[in-house]
From TrEMBL:
PROSITE patterns: CSA_PPIASE_2 (PS50072), PROKAR_LIPOPROTEIN (PS51257). Its EC number is 5.2.1.8. Pfam families: Pro_isomerase (PF00160). This is Peptidyl-prolyl cis-trans isomerase. Residues 1-21 form the signal peptide. Belongs to the cyclophilin-type PPIase family.
Length: 233
């Protein structure tokens, strides 16, 4: 999801290129994920049509593409359970319905279960944890892609949940969690926020350090980080 960078702009390209084929990363401010549930959103009834064409790559795990009809209202709470602790997130179905629809579908199919988060960056303007590729290489995905959902005004403060990509409209399964205010161009779909307890969990991961081997910044965590499960609702 990430790739190479030297400056802030380089940082961004790095995030995007790192996920060969389709991935990147992004952020938003922390909020309380318990405010509204998937049932609340579904009850509202507003939907939109999404497209999830094949990206020409073999999926890292055998999963079905999401339904093309997506809830386009409200928020959905979710929990990313890791070996370091739980990261609570709130997904913004109103603003990014197709992205949330994909993330929830993959989570419910177990795509993210027992998968590594292979990269963490903890430096000025670049504090992210990258996850979502079962292969742990930064190039794996779900076998489909989908379009960006951008306003052009995206920012990436601590508490942001965003999609990784390899260029415009190449979103797939990879995502990044922003735990330090980060400076990226508005090229990464921001589809949710991270709660305060979740940010503390990522701080604990960052405290273990990393090998700084990634050409765009950061590197593999010194202590393995594993997503045990992603629970929706």
């Amino acid at each position: 999801m990430l790739k190479r960078l030297a400056t802030v702009a380089a940082c961004l390209s790095v995030l995007a290129l790192s996920a060969c084929g389709n991935e990147s990363d992004g952020p938003d401010t922390a909020t309380d994920p318990s405010a509204e549930t998937s049932e609340d959103s579904a009850a509202a009834g507003e939907t939109t049509t999404c497209e999830y064409p094949s990206d020409g790559q073999e999926p890292a795990r055998d999963v079905d593409a999401p339904d093309t009809e997506a809830t386009a209202e409200g928020t959905i709470s979710a929990t990313i359970t890791t070996n370091f602790g739980d990261i609570g997130i709130t997904l913004d179905a109103a603003t990014t319905p197709c992205t949330v629809n994909s993330f929830a579908s993959l989570a419910e199919q177990g795509f993210y279960d027992d998968t590594p988060c292979p990269r963490i960056g903890d430096q000025e303007g670049f504090g992210i944890l990258q996850c979502g590729d079962p292969t742990g290489t930064g190039s794996g995905g779900a076998g489909y892609s989908f379009a960006d959902e951008l306003s052009g005004d995206e920012t990436y403060p601590a508490g942001t949940l965003a999609m990784a990509n390899a260029g415009p409209d190449t979103n797939g399964s990879q995502f990044f969690l922003v735990f330090r205010d980060s400076q990226f161009p508005p090229s990464y779909t921001v589809f949710g926020t991270i709660d305060e307890a979740g940010l503390e969990v990522i701080d604990a991961i960052a405290a273990e350090g990393n090998d700084n081997a990634h050409p765009a910044g950061g590197g593999a965590p010194n202590k393995d980080v594993t997503i045990e499960q992603v629970t929706i609702g």
